[in-house]
Design goal:
Helices cover about 30% and strands about 25% of the residues. By secondary structure, the chain is of the alpha+beta class. The chain is globular, with a radius of gyration of 24 Å.
């Protein structure tokens, strides 16, 4: 069965012809390890032949981002893997497709249900054969008492609660940082120049360095506020352009940088 959702969101912008985005998923519900097949159509294409795919977890934290290549007729297809730390919480995940080709702006979202499952060792692996030097066990007596065992599902629930708390705290911190720290205009200016080819990756690193020193993004390990990032995916330039033009929010843009740092995509 194919599930579809069509949404067009163009707040505050008037177009001669508003495009429509159709998003299709092969299923409505997934578990850990599943492959999510995404397809759809964008009508009324402009000059751009690609769109951005974003995935948000139940706490509205960006957990995956990438580009989608569009066919001349506007159709597209993409597969993503529901695995890893990004897919650690049960709930509704939002799949978002964003298409921008000035002056065209269109977004569409689709929600899928996800349940994190943990692999358990098989009985043959956990059950040890009796030693040849030991006699077969006798019939148990009525006085034999076994300590209570914690069900596996209970342990899983406790882990999920801890994961949800950690993600909720991370989101809260991101929101607080975004609300209290003003992003200078030169940061957007550098992002636009980077997209236009007037600034190289080393020059654009100043934007990321500022986000690190101001606390907008968090880093760990060998990344420092003085790090120069030579390897940055080209599709991030499109995101930088949209942000510099005010088409996406500060939070969305900073979250995309945080994602690239967390996944060690930029270095």
């Amino acid at each position: 069965m194919i599930f579809a959702l069509v949404l067009v969101a163009t707040p505050g912008i008037v177009f001669a012809q508003s495009p429509q985005i159709t998003i299709l998923t092969d299923k409505q519900s997934y578990v850990t390890g599943d492959t999510i097949s995404i397809s759809g159509t964008i009508s009324s294409l402009g000059s751009s032949n690609n769109a951005v795919l974003q995935v948000f977890n139940p706490f509205n934290v960006l957990v995956q981002i990438g580009t989608i290549n569009l066919a001349p007729d506007g159709t597209f297809s993409k597969t993503i893997k529901a695995a890893g730390e990004s897919w650690a919480s049960d709930g509704s995940y939002q799949i978002k497709v964003l298409y921008v080709s000035t002056p065209i702006l269109a977004t569409a979202t689709a929600n899928v249900n996800f349940k994190a499952v943990q692999s358990t060792p098989s009985q043959s692996q956990t059950t040890q054969p009796p030693s040849a030097s030991q006699p077969p066990p006798s019939q148990p007596t009525q006085n034999t008492q076994n300590p209570p065992q914690v069900p596996d599902d209970q342990t899983s629930i406790e882990q999920q609660i801890q994961q949800r708390i950690a993600l909720a705290n991370k989101l809260k911190q991101q929101i607080e940082n975004t609300a209290t720290v003003q992003i200078p205009s030169w940061v957007k200016d550098t992002a636009q120049k980077w997209h236009d080819g007037m600034v190289d990756n080393a020059g654009f690193s100043k934007d990321i360095q500022y986000m690190i020193t101001s606390g907008l993004v968090k880093v760990s390990g060998q990344v420092t506020p003085s790090s120069t990032f030579e390897h940055i995916p080209s599709w991030q330039k499109k995101v930088a352009e949209w942000w510099s033009q005010g088409l996406i929010s500060d939070y969305d843009y900073v979250n995309s940088i945080q994602y690239l740092l967390d996944k060690k995509v930029i270095k």
